[in-house]
Write a structure and sequence with these properties.
This protein has 404 residues and is α/β, with parallel strands linked by helices. Helix content is 28%, strand content 25%. It folds into 2 domains: 209 residues, FAD/NAD(P)-binding domain; 142 residues, 2-Layer Sandwich (D-Amino Acid Oxidase, Chain A, domain 2). The strands form 4 sheets. The chain has an 8-stranded mixed sheet, with helices on both faces. Strands 8-2-1-12-19-18 form a 6-stranded mixed sheet, covered by helices on one side. Helix 1 links the parallel strand 1 and strand 2. The structure holds flavin-adenine dinucleotide (FAD). Flavin-adenine dinucleotide binds next to helix 1, strand 2, helix 2, strand 13 and strand 17.
């Protein structure tokens, strides 16, 4: 991977690049990082972020498990994670001494059966070739490192030795938002209802209440709402809301180096504060579009999560549920990857959405890419063209194989 220069600390002046009016739809992690990165890139025009709910209570960002991994099946995702992990390490330099996102590099431990071993070794080799630091561990090494976890049916575990772990997504959002505002980005509280077109150009964003914001560029960063929003433009963006429940619980089991653990059963668990959080991906037949439904799927706990957890970590048979919440993954049904870049006809409509459950970790890289597209007319640091609209238009998936 080509080394990428990080951003300048917020507040340092940048040489002016690019002008015009940018309107960003959605002011959570994707929208705020796009706005901040534009200013970092020296964009001299106006930037307005339109956010319908400044409490962010239903945004995926606020409801996320906020973890970062480099173990992906596609090189672009690995490169974006490495970019973000390096940024997280430098958070104080970039956002000030009070910046704290609670970044813990404790790794993702992804377990595989004996039959999956060859495939997992190949994935680790590929990930390493892009700069990820992945350890491949056999059952005995796993037992020695992680006592109390049952590895009897396991053939292999892969663990990120660095650049993987978790952080506080809410704090990260607040930092990006604060820095964007300090650099002259306007945040407007309103719902975008529709768009104004002239020839093959999006010329305005129309808000509930009748206000019009003229624009030279419009960035679509409305998360799980993005598909419906652009449907009004006749654009078929296959991004839909899928409900994911997170359980927060306490158990007497303690292990200092407990990583983010992905089990062969489909469950995940990681430490959070004094306890743990975890969840399980619903089966395809129980995964209808969520359509405004934020009710946690409580029955998952007894029916699938807890039995699988107690099998993997017998001491977790004893657990006390503290709370549960549900958020929406913004799932790109074509290939579970983000959509970044311009529409093929409406060239000034820039997508930054569809990250299917890995958007908080990738937002810093996506923001940078959006800024380069607008300020420089093309990618300069990480080439995100594999995530471009063309694959959606031509239904050519770039399948992400490591999906949780
Ligand atoms: C349970 C759960 C766990 C997750 N775990 C992880 C994880 O461990 N790691 C990871 O990287 N990612 C994770 N994700 C995914 C991650 O949260 C998302 O990919 C990411 O937050 C997407 O950010 P966003 O800014 O695009 O969307 P959002 O955070 O949803 O923000 C979109 C914003 O657009 C606003 N909006 C919508 N429509 C309009 C409109 N018409 N007008 C104005 N504003 C509008 C919304 O109010 C919202 O604030 C998880 C998600 C969930 C639900």
């Amino acid at each position: 991977m080509k080394p990428v220069n990080m951003h300048r600390p917020s507040g340092d002046p940048a040489p002016a690049r690019g002008s015009g009016r940018v309107v960003i739809v959605g002011g959570a992690i994707m929208g705020s990082f796009s706005a901040w990165a534009l200013r970092q890139a020296g964009f001299g025009g106006s930037i307005t972020v339109v956010e319908k709910d400044p409490t962010y209570q239903y945004s995926s960002t606020a409801l996320s498990a906020a973890s970062i991994r480099t173990q992906f099946g596609t090189p672009t995702n690995i490169q974006m994670s490495l970019y973000s992990a390096r940024m997280f390490r430098e958070i104080k330099r970039l956002f000030g001494d009070d910046a704290d996102i609670g970044y813990r590099e404790k790794g993702y431990l992804i377990l595989g059966s004996a039959e999956q071993t060859a495939e997992r070794l190949a994935a680790a080799d590929m990930q390493r070739s892009y700069g990820a630091d992945i350890l491949v561990l056999g059952p005995d090494e796993l037992r020695a490192r992680f006592p109390g976890i049952n590895f009897d049916d396991i053939g292999v575990g892969t663990l990120g030795a660095q650049h993987e772990g978790w952080f506080d997504a809410w704090s990260l959002l607040q930092l990006a938002r604060r820095a964007a505002r300090q650099s002259g980005v306007d945040y407007v509280t309103a719902a975008v209802e529709s768009f104004e077109l002239n020839d093959a150009k999006l010329t305005g964003v129309l808000l509930a209440g009748g206000q019009r914001l003229g624009c030279d560029f419009c960035v679509m960063a409305a998360g799980a709402w993005s598909g419906r929003l652009v449907a009004g433009l006749g654009i078929d963006l296959p991004v839909v809301p899928k409900k994911r429940t997170v359980f927060s619980f306490k158990t007497p089991f303690k292990l200092d180096n407990f990583p983010m653990l992905f089990d062969t059963s489909g469950i995940w668990i990681r430490p959070e504060g004094e306890g743990y959080i975890g969840g399980i991906q619903p089966s395809a037949e129980n995964d209808a579009d969520a359509d405004g439904d934020f009710e946690p799927q409580h029955d998952q706990l007894e029916q699938s999560y807890w039995p699988a957890l107690a099998t993997r970590i017998p001491a977790m048979e004893q657990m006390r549920l503290q709370r549960a919440w549900a958020g929406h993954y913004e799932v790109n049904t074509l290939d579970h990857n983000g959509v970044v870049g311009p529409h093929h006809e409406l060239r000034n409509l820039i997508f930054a959405t569809g990250f299917s459950g890995h958007g908080v970790m990738h937002a810093p890289a996506v923001g940078r890419a959006v800024a380069e597209l607008i300020a420089d007319g093309g990618y300069r640091s990480i080439d995100l063209s594999p995530l471009g609209w063309d694959r959606i238009r031509t239904s050519t998936p770039m399948l992400e194989t490591i999906v949780y």
